[in-house]
Amino acid sequence: MPQSQRDVRNRISAVKNIEKITRAMAMVAAARLRRSEQRIVALRPYASAIRRMTRQAAEAAGEVPSVPILEQHAEVGTVGLLLVAGDRGLAGAFNSNIVRAGVAAGREHEGDGRRVVYFASGRRAASSLTFRGLEPADSFTGFTDRPSFPDARRIAERLMAAYLDGEVDQVEVFYNGFLSPISQVVRRETLLPLQRATVLEGEPTEEAEAGTGNEQRVVPEYEPDAAAVLRRLVPDYVEISIYRALLDSTASEHGARMTAMRHASDNAGELIHDLTLQMNRARQAEITQEIMEVVAGAEGLG
Q: What is 26-258's CATH number, 3.40.1380.10, 3.30.70.2660, 3.30.565.10, 3.65.10.10?
C-alpha cells in the first residue's frame, strides 16, 4: 500500500531521533573506552608481575605445598565456569559470544562425564543462562561499566570458596579479550587448580618483551621459603587474574558498543536518505497528478 507524504515524513522524523540517540551512545562509549584502555595499561605491569612471581615461586617450591587452595583434587568431577559479560545490551555480539562459548564448553565437559556449575558476571550472562535452563550458582552484577578491585575480590573469594569446599574441582573463566576498539576475542583460561592454570603459562615478561633477556638469568631468593611465598601469592594471583578479565571485558564491551552504535547511526543515515527520496517521489507524483487534473479540466472547458 503506498504511503502518504505524512507517513514518510513521520518515519523520517522517528529515524532521525534514533540516529541522535545512537550517535550519542557511540560518543559515550568512546569516552568510556579511552578510560578503560588507560586502566588496562596501568594494571598490565602489576598483573604480569604477580603472574610471573607466582609461576617462579611454584617452580622453586617443587612439589606444591600441602595447603587446601594449592591442593589438586584427585579427579575433576565438577567444573566451575565463570562467564564474564555485561549488564547491558546494544553491544553487538559481545554478550552472546561469551554465553555461546561458555555453554559449548559446558557441553564438552558434560560429554566427558563431568558436572558443570556456572557462575555469571553481568546481568546479560546471568539472564541468558537462566533462559537456557542453566541457572548459575551465583551471579555478580551492577559493576560491569566500571569494575573495581573489590568486585574482582568478591568473585575470587566465591570461586576459591567453591574450590576449597569441593563444590568444584576446576575453575575456568570466559571473557572478551580486548585487542582494539573493533576487535575482541573470546578467551578461555583455567584459573584453578594452580597446576592446571593456563594463565601462568607463557606469560611474557617485560624484560623478554624488551629483548634484554635478564629475566632468564635472575634466580629469586625466598624468605622464609618459596612455599610460604606461594601460599601468600595464590589468592592475589586469583584476584588479579579476575580483575584483569573484568577490565578487558569492560573495554571490549565499550568498544563493541561504540562500533555497534556507529553502524546503527550509519544505517539510520542510509534509511533517512532512502525515505527522503521516497517522499520526494511521492511529492512529484502528487504535483504531476494535480497538473494533469488541471490540464484535463481546461481541455474540458475548451
A: 3.40.1380.10
